[in-house]
Design goal:
Shape: globular
Order of helices and strands: EEEHEEEEHEHEHHEEHEHEHEHEEEEEH
Strand order of the largest sheet: 10-12-11-13-14-19-18-17-15-16
Distance between the termini: 70 Å
Number of helices: 10
Largest sheet: 10 strands, mixed
Radius of gyration: 21 Å
Structural class: alpha/beta
Number of strands: 19
Strand content: 25-35%
Length: 371
């Protein structure tokens, strides 16, 4: 692919943006969203939650520190495209191993630069996330709209990015089973540094498979797509609620809500960025959080579920956290494992592990009493 080849982005309402390509040069029909983070483009393109999406970076300069081997959130990025105002192909960073464009070529991630991302971001904010196509600059708008209308949009995002088979990471004293719906690597890192052995299982693992690991707690990860499509995961979590401590992040938060009998809905343009203020309703403290989601839990559907709202987004008052203390279950919509990003919410891992320690202590006491 030649650098600076002219390509265009056409939205389903007919809006078009013409710029230069970088990374892969592949025509794609996508859902387009925006992210307001000022750093972390490597973590963004390797976050499985962006599967099948094109991400518009509102921060103007992307690529200036290259790609670092230790900063991936998955081994195989699955985002469809990255769009920015200015792309830098000569990074300055002693940790840099490759340029962003080189990595995007390897994983077939289309890049578009040189457009007015401020205008595009406002368009998405005002009109909502939408379908779009990245195509050759010579494609007419009517041709592009026909391609958008005729495209097959995949719905198997979680199954695509979840681990195909179970594996174990770490060797700590605490035993955590993590359901991988598109889990970021930094979640596993957070558990390992807290003395955990993490058994990662596929998104459709059965309750019997999970309990056979003799876990101290169950974690449900982030991931892409509509939470209501994860019917097998929801059924498994519903069976296990109350049987052991459960903690969910992002998609895992939504799955816990669905498993408890609540409902979810799609947001107009989602929450994606590293500076979203969230209020902890128990402590009154404000946490600055990292977020990446298209769906939210309907607060009016929580009645009778046993769940209470624990955190609230201060930008739009959406539900950001849920808890059922009696069943030792809690979840958050945002990312306490964010890297790079705010560290205000890392205490949530410690909260979960305090529950798992208590659970293990109770199990050991029961065993001693039987003996």
């Amino acid at each position: 692919m030649e650098q600076n080849k002219k390509i265009k982005l056409v939205l389903e309402d007919g809006s078009e943006y013409i710029g230069s390509s970088f990374g892969a040069d592949t025509e794609k029909c996508v859902e387009i969203v925006f992210n307001t983070s000022m750093v972390g483009y490597q973590e963004i393109i390797s976050d499985p939650s962006y599967t099948y999406q094109a991400v518009v970076m509102t921060y103007p300069l992307i690529g200036n520190y290259g790609i670092c081997d230790d900063d991936y959130e998955t081994d195989r990025p699955s985002v469809s495209a990255l769009i920015c105002k200015e792309y830098c192909d000569e990074p300055s960073n002693f940790r840099c191993a490759e340029t962003l464009s080189e990595v995007m070529k390897r994983y077939d991630i289309t890049g578009l630069s040189g457009i007015d991302t401020r205008k595009l971001g406002r368009h998405i904010r005002d009109n909502g996330s939408c379908k779009a196509i990245l195509c050759d600059a010579g494609t007419t708008v009517p041709e592009a709209l026909n391609k958008i209308a005729e495209a097959e949009y995949k719905t198997d995002a979680v199954a695509t990015v979840s681990t195909p088979k179970s594996y174990t990471a770490g060797s700590g004293r605490r035993r955590i089973v993590a359901i991988d719906c598109g889990m970021k690597k930094n979640i596993v890192r957070e558990f390992i540094k807290r003395d955990c052995t993490v058994t990662v299982v596929p998104w459709n693992a059965s309750p019997e498979k999970i309990m056979s690991c003799d876990p101290d707690g169950l974690f449900i990860s982030n991931g892409p797509g509509d939470p209501e499509s994860c019917t097998e995961t929801v059924a498994t979590v519903k069976t296990l609620l109350g049987r052991l401590p459960v903690f969910g992040i992002c998609l895992g938060h939504q799955i816990i809500a669905l498993a408890s009998g609540a409902h979810t809905y799609k947001l107009k343009f989602g929450h994606r960025g590293g500076n979203h203020p969230v209020k902890n309703l128990e402590t009154g403290k404000i946490e600055i959080t990292s977020q990446n989601h298209s769906y939210a839990v309907d607060p009016e559907s929580l009645e009778g579920t046993g769940l209470i709202v624990s955190h609230m987004n201060l930008l739009d008052n959406t539900v950001e956290g849920l808890e059922n203390a009696e069943k030792r279950v809690f979840s958050v919509q945002y990312h306490p494992e964010s890297a790079p990003g705010p560290q205000d919410s890392s205490y949530l891992f410690d909260k979960f592990l305090k529950l798992t320690d208590g659970f293990r202590k109770e199990k050991n006491q029961c065993l001693r009493e039987r003996i």
